[in-house]
Design a protein that fits this description.
Chain A: Keywords: Amino-acid transport, ATP-binding, Nucleotide-binding, Transport. The complex is a heterodimer. Chain A is α/β, with parallel strands linked by helices. Helices cover 34% and strands 28% of the residues of chain A. Chain B is elongated and about 110 Å long. Classes of the chains: A alpha/beta, B alpha+beta. Chains A and B meet through α2 and α3 of A and α1, α10 and α13 of B.
Chain lengths: 225, 397
């Protein structure tokens, strides 16, 4: 379970101070599929960075799995993210000079796992997202849909209980979007908490719950779909 | 992330830009190679110096005294049995186990000979092997067998042949007496830089000549005595009382002094080369730094991805630092190897009969690796720190 309490975030631009997130409080339970929607500039990506443990410069409390994230040292914070959160980015963010298997295995490398263990886990997750045959290929030889499957595989390789996706279908055509959303739904069906940021309503509506953000505030009550 | 993985990652990314990586390490190679060259030669000189004092198996050391006549009065050897007795009965006599006389100074000597019943002074060269054949005019040079058994055969110069036998061809087969033995003329030759003397005989044949007198005195100094002091004392004594003191001079051949002079030159050279190498390494280091900065900015995305999937800042810093160290250590190893090869080549051109060999010691290897690692750390630190300090959110935006 993750719980945000009175989150405020300011950006400084020269002398100006911009209030990006305004007193946001929300709770997401384990196994939920939540979409966060909003216009560009609404602060939804900033909120996602906080939820996904990339950003820890904010005021307010963020309790994830019963742990106050402010209490973690910088090094422990990184480890905590590595173990609890899987990130899927808009434009895949794969390292071009590494094979698919190496890309997917990278989070495990930083956990200090053995080669054998890494290979086993990587093969399993690649099989799960249906691209085991591409394990030794390089990212540039893959289609957009395939690359996003690799990114999802990398996000779930550490078996996190939360997967966070920032505009995961933003760079994909509509039929590939359906494919990828099916992969996400399957993941969620297996019990992974799923949080997706999107501005595509057809994608957002596939979630169980939608949170709308406008000008750094949660709009009204979030509602079940 | 394990250390091994970090090194492999570093190698992988260096391989992405092989030309750039190679260009960057050239400076390191030059710096390390020049220092290793001079050190390998220095080691060789030291080794030779110590070897010189180990020639005798029984632990005896040798001192050598040469006699030089004032006029070019060939045949005058300068050192006789009288001189040997003089030294043996003197107060340094008990420090010496054996005194030998030799007509040879290096490979040449002088003695009296008889050609066509006429007594004449002759200078001669001894031939030890067939590596340096003289420039033959007529007849044939010695065979290997002649050299091995010391056949009484002789080669004479074209001029000597013309003077005594009319022509070069006539001389072949005639008899010439040198010292106490008669030799058959096998051929005639033209003088050159290597063979400047009147005649050439096999070294083994010369060995049969009596050594009652000679131009060189070799003192075998007993264990525990200083050969230098004994040699200098003998030289002094001979200059005062030697049998030929009025027609020539005696001189102790001080190998120590020679080595000392080589060392002096070498020390000067080492200083100069070290300065050049230091500048070279500094500039190379700046090259490495420049390349690492470019690499860091080119791979901003990669850094962001690594940080996002669980790399700590020190993981990133170590990755780039190790990349820089791998680069410079590879340069250091290439420098070590080329330094050794260059030193080997250079020693071949050192004049004289010194037999210096280039030697690489463990200390040199440690030095090369240590310095190149240090350059990698010093000049890779700032770029690596910049990589580690990148803001994750900014990169991924």
């Amino acid at each position: 379970m993750l719980e945000l309490r009175h989150i405020n975030k300011y950006f400084k631009r020269g002398d100006d101070e911009q209030h990006v997130l305004k007193d946001i409080s929300l709770t997401i339970n384990d196994g939920e599929f939540v979409s966060i929607m909003g216009h560009s500039g609404s602060g939804k990506s900033t909120l996602l960075n906080i939820i996904g443990l990339l950003d820890r410069e904010f005021s307010g409390d963020y309790v994830l799995n019963g742990l106050d994230t402010h209490e973690l040292s910088k090094k422990k914070f990184t480890k905590f993210r590595n173990e609890n959160v899987g990130w899927v980015f808009q434009n895949f963010k794969l390292i071009q000079n590494m094979t698919i298997a190496d890309n997917v295995g990278l989070p495990l490398r930083y956990q200090g796992k053995s080669n054998k263990e890494i290979k086993q886990t990587v093969d399993r997750v690649l099989d799960e997202v249906g691209i085991l045959d591409k394990a030794d290929a390089f990212p540039k030889l893959l289609s957009g849909g395939q690359q996003q499957r690799v990114a999802i595989a990398r996000a779930i390789v550490t078996s996190p209980n939360i997967v966070i996706a920032d505009e995961p279908t933003g760079a994909l055509d509509s039929s590939t979007t359906i494919e990828i959303m099916n992969v996400f739904k399957q993941l969620n069906a297996q019990g992974t908490t799923l949080i997706i940021v999107t501005h595509d309503a057809s994608v957002g509506e596939q979630a169980h719950r939608m949170i709308k953000i406008l000008d750094g505030q949660v709009m009204g009550a979030d509602y079940e779909i | 992330m394990k250390f091994r993985e970090t090194v492999l990652t570093a190698l992988q990314s260096l391989k992405m830009n092989p030309k750039r990586s190679f260009m960057t390490i050239i400076g390191i190679v030059i710096g390390i190679a020049s220092v290793i060259t001079i050190m390998a030669i220095g080691n060789g000189v030291n080794k030779m110096a110590t070897d010189q004092f180990k020639t005798s198996k029984s632990g005896e050391l040798k001192a050598k005294i040469d006699y030089y006549g004032y006029d070019d009065d060939a045949g005058q050897k300068g050192l006789s049995q009288a001189d040997v007795s003089l030294i043996k009965s003197s107060d340094i006599g008990h420090k010496i186990s054996k005194i030998e006389l030799s007509a040879l100074s290096g490979d040449t000597g002088q003695t009296t000979g008889i050609i066509n019943d006429e007594s004449t002074d002759l200078s001669f060269t001894v031939m030890r092997n067939l590596d340096n054949e003289p420039d033959m005019q007529s007849g044939k040079v010695f065979s290997q067998n002649d050299l091995d058994v010391g056949q009484n055969k002789i080669l004479i110069t074209k001029d000597l042949a013309k003077k005594n036998f009319g022509s070069a061809e006539n001389a072949v087969g005639k008899s010439v007496t040198l010292g106490n033995y008669a030799y058959t003329v096998a051929g005639t030759y033209n003088e050159n830089d290597r063979y400047m003397d009147n005649v050439i005989i096999p070294y083994e044949a010369f060995q049969r000549e009596s050594n009652d007198d000679g131009a060189v005195m070799i003192l075998s100094v007993k264990k525990g005595e200083n050969p230098r002091k004994v040699g200098q004392a003998a030289e002094k004594m001979l200059s005062k009382q030697g049998s030929s003191r009025n027609s020539g001079s005696y001189s102790y051949e001080d190998t120590d002094k020679m080595i000392g002079e080589i060392s002096k030159v070498l020390n000067g050279l080492t200083f100069f080369v070290s300065a050049v190498a230091g500048i070279s390494l500094f500039i190379a280091g700046i090259g490495v730094m420049n390349m690492m900065y470019i690499s860091v900015s080119e791979r901003t995305q990669e850094i962001g991805i690594r940080l996002a999937v669980g790399a700590t800042e020190s993981n990133i810093r170590n990755q780039f630092l190790i990349e820089s160290i791998v680069l410079t250590v590879v340069g250091g190893l290439i420098g070590l190897l080329s330094g050794y090869l260059i030193a080997n080549m250079v020693t071949k051109f050192i004049p004289g009969d010194m037999h210096i060999k280039a030697i690489i010691s463990l200390a040199d290897v440690v030095f090369a690796l240590g310095v190149s690692t240090l350059v990698g750390v010093i000049f890779g630190w700032l770029p690596a720190k910049q990589a580690a300090d990148k803001n994750l959110i900014d990169i991924l935006r």
